[in-house]
Design brief:
six-stranded antiparallel beta sheet, alpha+beta, about 15% helix, 2 helices, about 80 residues
Length: about 80
Amino acid sequence: MEEITLKNAKKNNQYQITKINTKDNTKIRKLSALGLINGSSIEVILTYPSIVIIVGFSQIALDENIASLISIKKSNKS
């Protein structure tokens, strides 16, 4: 399956995180604390004005800069 960044995801679709594209340990720790790690399943529920996703039982809003660091692929559950 084709990988895209979360910034380019379509709403109402489910994806799986494949990679966090940063070497900034602070960002990696913050994203990990939110449950955004390799292999996590997410659902995109809003793409404008910010990207809102569901991870587990949490809704998280991300700006485009952070969303562009997260590589995803479409989940088989979509």
